[in-house]
Amino acid sequence: MTVPAERVLVLGLDGGTFDLLDPWMQAGELPFLRSLSESGLRAPLQSVYPPKTIPAWYSFATGQDPGALGIFGFTEPDGGPGKSKIVQTFRPVEAVWDLLSRRGVRVGVLNFPLRAGYALNGFVVPGMLSENPPTYPPGLRESLEAATGEPHLAELPAYRSADRAAWLDQAKRAVEQHARYAELLMERHHPDFLFALFRETDRVQHQHWAELTRPLAEVPEDLKAFWRAVDGACERIDRAFRKAGGPALTLVISDHGHGAARSDFFTNRWLAQEGYLVFRGSPSGHRRRWMTRFLIASERFAPTRWLVRAVADRLRGGPRREWLGTALAGKGSFEAMAANIDWEKTVAFSYPVPEGIYMNRYNPNLGAEARERIIAEIRGKLEAYQSAKIEVFDPREIYRGRNLAQAPALLLRIDGLATESRMDFSYPDPMLAKRPGYYYGSGVHRMNGILIAHGDRFAPGRRAGPYSLLDVAPTILDAMGVPVPDAMAGHSIATATASG
What we know:
18 helices, 2 domains, 18% strand, Alkaline Phosphatase, subunit A, alpha/beta
């Protein structure tokens, strides 16, 4: 058994941002996070691009960027056009806990997005990617259920306004369950490294961002109760971890930030409009065009606005509801429309990563020279687009890693991410300048994540950075006295602050 220089606890608040946390901490609503922030280092933590849960958490875990991992979103191409699959794993690249485990350090991983646990010197309780993924050791989730006397709470279901009270109650109970699981696992396994993730913070912010960012006195009590539960759960896990004694470092991090969702850009509509994506028939049926015009017009009048939002809420979530929505408005998803695309004439499309534009490898006439010319042409047109500020990146410009076989040819960032990139064909025009009220949620991801570091190496109240999400894994290894592999792209924050 290896005894590390310091024990390290990492608490992940999915989507956490100081834009939300700062006023809540200052008002005394989050006393534990405030105490950590004031007694240690507090700094912005820049996410990877795209700032999405899977590539971001996998980049944190491995210290390698999406270009090295070959992971650019939740899904990756899988066979023919319009087909994709959920990203399976970051392996065979090692996570920081794999490296520690191999050196004899006891490790624990709770609620990290994995399809299954795997053997290491400790435990893994996966979360997010499937309902009840296998744990390591096998049967661990069942033993935790028996010890707590309650069933395991998996990923939150699709949100509906009619279910608000039950949905937020489940989110709060899941946060509290994570804390109880961590306490039990600490008692049983005594890890010297522990990662515990709260996915619910991101889900709640997506849906309720507009309410969460009101003046605090106007924030609904159920949202305050949720965030108080998050703060309390972090305190419980930290207390249980430090109970074992010895030098310890607590890191509170997020995979990305969050902000208001202002508008939407339908990339495939734009590509079709510009002639890069070609349909065999009409790119949008008469029924969908009529329906979308009606929906947008409904926002002008209170009675129709209320009616449309109520109907949209009823149709959200579940295959039967989705079937009824399609029956009413016609097909809109990229997968559903793929059969109508002329793949021998199309040169570019956006799928399966919504921030990406892919060159069509199914077009027999798209040679290397034409491909580069069209990429440059698309980039120039998008950068000159008048209705939004569109930043366009070649993956080779933003990634150190070169595992780019499944990367988009171009990546888009629109209005600093206030405009969300969309792959579907729900609207007949590329730009939806104002997100309608019947849409799902009011929040969307940003690049500005959080870092709070509490330990002997970090001076009280120090504010520095911004640092990169890729700096966290080297910081963990540095604190624990383990050499940082050359493959990791970041640098130890502890070393930087000590010398800064």
